[in-house]
Structures
1.
Amino acid sequence: MLQRELTRDQAIQTGEQILEVLEGQILERGYTYFSNGVVFNTRVEDEILLKSDVQGTQVYHVSLNLQTVQESTCTCPYSRLCKHIAATFFQMYSVFENPRHLLARSQQPRTLKYSPALLVPPFKNGIQYLTGSHTDSWRDGLLDSSTSVAEWWRFFENWTRNLPSAMESFRASSELFSSYENLLGIAVSWPPRRASLFAMHATLFHLNLLQEFVLAKRHSHWSVELSQSAERLLSTLEGLLYYWDPSHLDEGDQKALIETKQLLSEWKDKDALSVFEMLAYQLLWWNLLQAPAWVQQETNEIDQRIADPTTTPTEMEKYRMLQALFLVMDGKDQDALAIWLTSKQLPLAFYLPFLKSFAREQDWVRLLEWTHRLERLIGTAENGQYRLVTAIWREAMKQMGREQECGTKLRAFLPGSFSEYAAFLFDHQQYREWLDLQLSYRTPFPEIQAWNMKAIEEMNPTLLLPLFLSEVNRLIDERNRPAYKEAIKLLKKVRSLYSKLNQEMRWNSYLELLSAKHNRLRAFQEELRRGNLNV
């Protein structure tokens, strides 16, 4: 049916868009859904909309826009292009092409195309999207929307009294989020703004509980699993704040905000404040507690602690880190970054909320100033964060009329930008710089494409000699006959290059030195003689 309603060209063009806008991880999950056969009722509407139903936690309804993939929709909680959209795409693509080939391409280094959708938190607005079992009725009446923040926290304490032992006995992250999602279900029927505040506090509480669990049970060691749990909580908090509506706050809302400010103010005096808790503190002051009088009061309290001669060096560092946020809020970005960048514990994720905020406000000058200071962190960030930040950075350069500079400035983002920067150098025939880059980062010789070397050989064969000779040395160092044979094959290529350059004497001299250097390697000497490499 799809074969009659769509064309192969449509499938291929949609696939190219998919590669531009979907992360490899999302595509992999979508392919798994497609392979498991959970995509059904696939049909075409209005010639450009591919509709389907996908069985996930429940049945989700997908509308894939074949002309503009970014405008595709799904009824699942995820606010961006999701695995259900990817699964629907693969269902269609498989009619015309092998989907495994496109999946393989998605694993290659790719440049993420900028879209304002990249700045939207990953989950849709509404507390119902944060809990998978919000229709359960057993929680009705446990709390109501008129209760205070203090009552919420007392309830949280009672709710989770057995959670630390369950986290220790079973998988910690699963137990944590089971508690968290069930807790959020209490507020599903509350007024939206009140429910959002409740969810923010539930998030803070579980983040705090996670920190206590690490200190008590894991000897201050954050495992990958627990770090990912903290990051997921922070992502949820960021989303709740993104959709927060500050207009027409009633008396109850104002009281809850005051309690929130008081509670958060107490966080700065905790004995141990993790990077994740510090980021939560910043998110709330940056997005929720912006009243000038509150900000001034908190700033004064931090300044007093910094000036206090009894403050320990560890406490001083903590207060300085928190002080930097208020410097940013006061427009003193460079002073704040000077503080934060002295710490090697702050990853790029720590700065991402600010970068996304600048991009939403289209404050491109400010964003470029930050990316310039964060070059080292961007270059060493994990791939997903690197691609997100550089996509935003490219848009800023474009908006500032500096798009033509992007290629050369990619050098500042090495090693993360290796593939992009190498492609730029090659496309602009900067072959010497391209080869220096390959040698500097020790690109395995088999991974260098033959067509790359052929193009360089036609332009300037001399440039290839260091690359070939470096590989010869590496092969000889493997100390086995198969590697020696490969080295001889490559030496024949080197000999032909010397011949093209009319440097036969230089070749013979190199060969003599090579033979003398490895005169004790009998097998290598045998392969040299068999190769008959003299000119």
2.
Amino acid sequence: MKKELKYGFFSFLLIITLILFGGTFSPKASASSDTFLSSLNPVDYYGFYASQWNVSNPFADSSEKKVSRAIGLSNNSGGASYATYKLEHKSFKTFQGKITLDSKWLKADYGKTTVAFYSDDRLLYEKSLTSTAPSANPKVSLPKNIKYFNIIVRQEAGSKGTHGVIVQDGKLLNSGSYLNTPETDYDSALTVKTSKNSAFYNDTTNSPIGFKDINGNLITKAIVFSRSYGGGDYATFDIKDAGYTQFETKLSLDSEYIKGNYGRTIVSIYADDYLLYEKELTSKTSVQTVQTNIPKGTNQLTLVTKQLGGSKGAYRVVFINPVFKAVGFPVTVPYTISPMTLTGEVSGYFQEGNIYSERESLIPQYSNGSLATTSMIFKKGYNGEVYASYNMSNTDVNTFKAKLSVDGRYINGDYGTSVIKIYANNQVIYSNTLTKKTGIIDLNLKLPSPLNTFKIVTDQKAGTKGDLRVILGNPVFQKIPVSANLTAKQISIVNNYNKADTVTVKSLSKGDKVKVYNTKRQLIATSAAAAKDSVTVSINQLGTGEGTVLVSRTSTNKLESGKTSVNYAAEPSVSTKLVSSQVKVINNRNKNDIVTVNRLAKGEKVKVYNAKGQLLATSDGAAKDTVTVSIKQLGSGKGTILVSRISPSKLESDKISVNYNAE
């Protein structure tokens, strides 16, 4: 067998060296020059071999050549092997070398192998080695102020055992450039560790088994949620005052648990009660890169999975190389509190499913079949009311958000209807009758101030198969900034005759939207987001007379402002139509033709058109009661013209038809 003597006589030398030299470098090693890894002594190791596997088993690369200046890493039973080197206060900038599988354990089923290099908690390089791609030549930059350089080999044993991994001519160089690392902190979630408030949680530090991504690649560092049936899993990290501003990971399902019916799973990340990320994963979802900002003042960051089990169990969810970082400045998000953390009074048949709920029955399923992480579920087996009421007097919130739907598990057949009413301070702020065709409604309800009570009531009218259960997915109360009120000077209204009316609002910020309401506070128009500093809203008709509209502004990431009342004038009246007896036409030969219109009011104008409606001439305003219009030539034969009147401050009248004689 290979590797039956782990480390051998070199192990004794290593112990003596660690005692004499602090476990960092052997006497011949120096940080002032390039240094081979094989000349350094690891301060921690497992499955580590120096120079050879044992006395009768030298290192050989994948092409069967004997290898010197190398180290070996392997674990016969699978799992992790590693070597950790202390590089603190050294000036190495680059690591380069060759990684190869030993040819002696290559041409049969020796399972899977992944090799990774870490600088402290930072992944620098990770590579899966196979019998068809058994080697690679990594060269990686090292961050400045590195403390430990780690080599980790993760293996899954095959029928013949495991590969032997060799790091050949691995060398730490003073040349090159340091890795650009803007973070002041960069800590693996495995280093930070979870709080006691965690369930069905595992990681690659504590587990001897290997975890894989959906492509079958072994993962060297990961947090994993693995259960054999449906329900909720979570891992909470206490990070108060830690200074972290970002959380980053890759997210995948384990390839060992996707062939067959493993149900459904949704994954989310929370900063306290604030939802940072949520996504439903399927067996076809590729590896996801997730980077979320951690809000200022976050006490706990929680990773959550909620799973509906299938006939084969539940998916295994893998958070690959999860890290906390401190870079830049923390973001500010609205103050957010979940109803589940408030004191309330609830009726029977009401259930809450928070991020720590482990029961599968508390996982909400919308009418379209999609899942949510947290829920308020109003259920009943027959007609009647279900309610949840909360004391809000000690909260400072102005918004309630949730996704409203009927339960997708109870819509195939006659389940009747459900009426939902939401009250704030005992006043209805939302009401709707839900059917199985209602779909998902994004609730974003503005709450009064001060807010003392909040209550949700459903009244279910059962059908022949039961009642429609009501779900509020991911419900939260928030304190959101309110958009600035518009002033009347910013708003101009044109009440047009016989065409759409317009409301123009100026002095806006880019992205602002405008809403227009009638005096009954019914919405009649919403603008697009302002591209610059103004928007114009087109309204079919405000009405012929004068009136009033209410106009509001909604700025990016803010609530809608209050409504500003603006008056508008009546539509302009239409000038009185002429009669043919007022119009006289002289069709002259060899000189301009003349159109005379009498019995006009002072200031009125006349327009003359040909029979096709093309404008021929416009008069000046009448000085007294008559105007004369000169037209170059109407034509030698008889014909017809069209004539209209325009009175001051009025619209042009309809055109009348007037015949004229030949020249």
3.
Amino acid sequence: MKSFKSKQLALLLISALSLTPTIASASPAASPDPSGEMAEALSQNWLPQSLTSAGASSSPITAAEFAEAVKTAAKAAGSSVTLAVPQEKGGLTREKAASLLDSLIQVPYAKPVEYRDVAPDSPDRKAIADVYTAELMQGKSPQAFGYGSMLTHRETAAIVYRLYRYLQPFKLTEATIAEMQKAMETGRLTSEELVGQYLERIAKYDHQGPKLNSILTLNARALETARQLDAERAATGERSPLHGIPVIVKDNYDTYDMPTTSGNVGLKGVIPPDDAAQVKKLRDAGAIVIGKANLHEFAFGYTTVSSMGGQTLNPYDLTRVPGGSSGGTAAAVAANLAAVGMGTDTGGSIRIPSSFNSLVGIRPTVGLSSRDGIAPLALTQDTGGPLARTVADAALILNATAGYDPNDIATAKSVGFVPKDYTDYLDRDGLKGARIGIVREVFGTDEKVNAVASRAIDEMKAAGAVLVDNVKIPNFDVINKYGSLSAWEFKFQFNDYLKSLGDASPYKSLDELIASGRYDPSIEKALIDRNKRTSLDAQEYKDIVLYRTKYVQEAVLKMMADHQLDALIFPTSSKTAVKIGEDQVAGDAFKLSSFTGWPTVTVPAGFTPDGLPVGIDFFGRAFSEPELIKLAYSYEQHTHHRQAPGSTP
């Protein structure tokens, strides 16, 4: 970064301006822009009147006027500027304006320009590429820069407004992946700086201050990895939209360079032989695993307490739980301690903490993304997916992590159902004409939650959706009587997972772990009960797997077909986050996705009067993630309910 970063700009303009060529013709007047960027620019009270007056809009600007406008923009952005203003008269050409702007910025990853009127050997070619990449100057058309033509006052107004935004310090909190990438592409930020800023926030808010206690382990090589990715970007460009982006990963995902404990102190220091499949895909895409997040031990509950990490706090109310079991990931992402996060979901473990932390959460179709290398709870229901602050960010994570993996046979079902790019479905008008069923029977009795859900329904109607009220799931009362698969599958699948760790694991079986006594006392009964299972050949277990899945899938498909529905909606949790130490309940809504194995997208729907976040779920058929993303994004863009927590400013 150049000197503007320390708020001291030295503009050496005289020598450059003395090279102004003979004027060929004045550039045409810019068309009035009643909306968008030009309207924003003209609304700035710091903008010189000479740039905003109608009479001067199409006239060429002089070098001195341009220099003064640049000085004013820098001052408005918070920079202290010293200018050496030239005395030469005459208009300023667009290419010389580009060269002057280029002296203020550093663009390490300039995009090549293809303007037909810029010669390959032009001395201004680099400057034009730099200001184009930095989005300070654009061509007169996609084919022509306007080389040799004069810069007008109105064009300068737009340029200095862009410079004003460019010079402002990068704002980390609530930044999207796209905004981070743009800042890195334009030289305002490096991945190393981005990681450093997140590490500073982790030290300030997770280890000190409110002490959220959301993160178990930091990646000691995160900054080194960021430097390597910065160098790679400069040499060959970015790998994907996730290049250099810091991600927090729930500590039941295997990582070859950090311990994976499932929140259990008995597994402290255990480093798996390789990455979980989804972690590897993220790293291959250029993402940086900045650390591992706390979780409810072995993913057993909704409060996120573990013998390894203790109790994670909810950043919206430090006396309350963050939800679970992916509560550490949720608290970290909500508090802006990482760009995005990864969680797992067996019975609401992505969705509920997303709801309690004003986040977007995607529980994918079982089989969309690999579970290989994720410590299991019940593989019949287990899946892993993103928690993010926006639908767009969650979609980018899904792009990187979805797809077939030969080490997880369930992903064979995804072949032919993974689109080229989930972000293609980010349609602001996606709710228009969509038919959505309201599943009242899973709403619960909490008036505060239901009031938020009612407002969400009205907001969807206002956005053009057709809401079909009080749709019924056939035989839902019968379906609800079937038991939990985690009570059956955990012992056998966790024993297989321990074997996959090889010599790194201190235990060969769940039986040995229980005998050690090294676990949080709150999960002792759950561990012992699960360990009593002797076989998966029991008829009760087979009935759950065969009949529960069949009944609920058929019931949902029939109901959606009968009403011609694109999706179903309901509150993510029937209750808000409870006080620490209390038992958290969530109702029956999570069962629709968990029992069918089909996808859900959770989106912030607002807050209760006492400031607690509430989420709404968009649920659909198998592999309907594109449709759900479209609906969720449209709702998000029409409402913007997401708010950052006050405890971590």
4.
Amino acid sequence: MTVRTWLRRARRGLLATGTTAVLTVALLAGTEATSHAASQAPCDLYAAGGTPCVAAHSTTRALYGAYHGALYQVRRASDGATRDIGLLSAGGYADAAAQDAFCTGTTCVITAIYDQSGRGNKLTQAPGGGAAPGPDNLAPATAAPVTVAGHRAYGVYVAAGTGYRNNHTNGIATGDQPEGMYAVLDGTHFGGGCCFDYGNAETNNLDTGNGHMEAIYFGDSTIWGSGTGKGPWVMADLENGLFSGPDPGYNANDPSVSHRFLTAIVKGAPNLWAIKAGNAQSGGLSTYYSGPRPNAAGYNPMHKEGAIILGIGGDNSKSSSGTFYEGVMTSGYPTDAAENAVQANITAARYQAPALTSSALTPGARVSLKATTPCCDTQYLRHQSDGTVAISPVSSTSSSGDKRDATWIVRTGLADSACLSFESAAASGQYLRHADFQLRTAAPNATALFNQDATFCLRAGHSGQGFSFQSVNYPNRFLRHYSYTGYLAGDGVGGHTWDSDALWSEDTSWLTAQPWA
């Protein structure tokens, strides 16, 4: 028996007993096989388990150990030119420096996410559908910065109204054929609308009935079903229902999740499906449901159509939000062992949120925050005499009082030292806070609630410009101006007028400017 034959048989035995494929590397230290296994990526692990990838999308890294093609394409606003963004090396990480150089001095959007499987299942701008007209928005290319194994990269930041799709796919499951899928997501970016999905959908952009979809859903919608707590939850969008378990409604075994980086899994086969999830930075997977299809007409057998969607529902419902880093779809129902091996590979990739810094936003510094929306790009966030907060024009000819009102003193976050609070320069001792989701200034009252309401974490600007400021106690809401008034706003969800998805990315992006006072 040759070494390679023995290794293949040993490897199959390990997978069959539930041992992760990573252990294969240790079988023959110093052999050619060790070098090959060390470069394995998620799609290599799925293939080893007999369920190869038929779609593989990522803007952060290679999902095959030998892949050395483009990950995604960006288009810049200044001249409409496009550029493919590839890898630093085969099987490696995104060449973020190439994107940075191409987009210097302007903004870029992600126009395509390429399929690494070789089947041509790339994702591009979603067209309109039965639930909403189109084409959908494209994600700003710099709104979701991340590091992977220490390398800078960018995810796909989906605000409400943003979506990608492919209706003409190759190899994606149809009918009741078995399939699996996973996605690595930002567990703190979510919405309650329909539907932030990744997976299998209709090919005509319409709701064609129960069981015509099978996709990962992430969010806190309770329209069709939910898990424990307030959400968000990993559920399955099977069309005309977000399922957390065997039937529409509540599943006590589907917990709210809050991992900064989240691995979410949905898989399905004839009268069998499952939901799994885990922390994408450490640990293993938990099974939230595994069993028969929902006990309702249309779901057994399934009627999957084989399109691929990202950020939207099958009928182009696009009122939710989330952030996507990587994901795949497989042919066949993956084994637990293969999924465990993939989870181990994901955690080994060391996803980390970058430490965003700005010399203008260090504690003790004074700063003015300038709006970036085209309507208002000469206006600044300012304190008003009645304690509310708004934006208004400020210039060199403005009064000294207006200049003080538009100046803030940066403080260490009252509720989180890794974040920021802002003291008004015009009203000493009063801090920027939200109350009933409207921005105000007030003096601290030594309560935990005030400290949380007055603490904001620095994030990359959602529009691709400047910075956005995330609430500590409402992590899916950000500082926004709307009708010239300051609010804490969600992107298209929340039930208030200021949560409108129109211009949300621009309205929540701020430039730091020299302090007016």
